[in-house]
Every structure is written in C-alpha cells, then in structure tokens.
Amino acid sequence: MRIGVGISVAMPTISSGPPLPIVTGGAFTTDGTYNYRTFTSSGSLSVSAAPLTGADVFMLTGGGGGGGTTYYSTCGGGGGAGGGYVLLTGQTIMGTYAVTVGAGGLGGVEDPFDPYYEYWGHEGGSSGIAGIGQAQIITTYAQGGKPGIDFMQGPGGDTDNGYFGGNGYSTSTRPGNGGAGLSANGGDNTLSTGGTGGNGYNLWGRGTYYGAGGGGGKRSGSGSAGSGGTTGGGSGGAYDSGEAAVSNTGSGGGGGKGNSAGNDGGNGGSGIVIVRYPV
Fold it and tell me: What is the distance between the alpha carbons of residues 35 and 174, in angstroms, rounded to a whole number?
C-alpha cells in the first residue's frame, strides 16, 4: 500500500489456518469439553473438509425382550438382557458412514401354532457404524428372557455372556429371574419375589446408563415382580404383561406375570450410537 509520495507500507498477511472438520448427522449437543452426535435411529455420519481426530464412538445394540408366560404355567417369565456394546477411542474419521441402530427385541408372546417357543423373548437388533474401527457393525448378545414354564430352570442372567434371566422352577410356582445388565448380573428370584434386572453401564461417567436388564415377572398368587435395572430396564409384570424397556437405552424388557391364561413379556429398548469429539 502506498501512502503519500515515495512511502510504502507492507500490509500484514492474515492466515486462515488449517481447515476445520465439518461434521453432520445425528442430534448435536455439547458440554463445553466434547461435542456429541447421537443417533437414536439409523442414518449417516459425515465428516468433510478435514479429518475428525480424537473421536470416541459408542455403539449399543437393542435389548432383549422379556419372557412371556405360557397358558399352562403359573411361573413368571425371565427378564431380557441388556444390549451388547463396543466403545472405540481415539478414532480418526473422514468421509460418510452408514449408521445402524438396532431395534429392541420383542417380548415373548403366544403363537397358537407354536405355543412353546414364541414365549421366549427375542434378541435385540444389531447396531454400529460400517467402516469405523474394524468395519464395526456389532451383533447382540442381548438374549431374550426365558418363558415362565414349570419345568424350566435357570439363574439370573450373567454379564459374561449377556444371557437371559431364568424361569420358574419345577419344584414350585416361582417368579422369573432378572436379565443381565452391562455392569451387573441379573438377580435370582426367591420363592415369592422376581429377580431384579442387572444395572446398566455408566457411559463416560456422565450418569447416563445403558444396557440394563429386565426384571422377572411375578408368579401367580402372592408375591411381587422384579424391578428393572438402572436405568431403563423394564420391570416384571405384576398384574399381566411385563413392562417394556425405555427406548434407546438398549435395556431388557420385563418378564410376564405367571397365570393360567399366560402373559406377554415386555419389549426390549432400542439401541443407540453416540460419537463424541473434542470441542
């Protein structure tokens, strides 16, 4: 730039710096330290302009459905297990990725053509992001609850394998056992009280829990149903059907109450996918 006669002044060069990543997809929130992209249904995650670095990715399948009770049994159904999960840390993401969020497993219901097996709770659906990590699409180990059948036996669900809650015992009319949660086994029943669902996983220590187990259904007659695990597991049926788990917690549904007419198990909660990255 020239000022006056024979005087030149150099203007400073303003640098724009490296491009920043542009991230789209999911519901956006921030806590001031991390940004979060939360997927409660299937969609896509897109990162353009520059790679996103230091990202953590949480992928949780749907929870298992609670076990129903057969028309010839007075035992309560077992609670469904919480969903399986994968937590990836320190990921570098660039491009567009398909995100899958699994549905919760259906609770056990009677099928007049196959009245035994339809009382079993169903597994939750798979979740993941194809191509992030090692082409992560995770299948679930969130088993459905077993039905309330007098001759079936079994303890509460085990977190080591995500198994379902057990059933009534052959020696007496009993409530159902609790389904496994991600951080605790499902509780065993007593003679009159249904097993409690195992507690879920406290993601990133923020007080939000995922993958709780469902509670065992009440037996026919006196007693009480088991409560769902923290947070989101469905409670066992105290009067009829088991309670459904809370959506997008990947938790298990509650087992149905035992009586001569039979009752449905509660549906499992759908899964969730969350991507967080530094602000």
Answer: 48
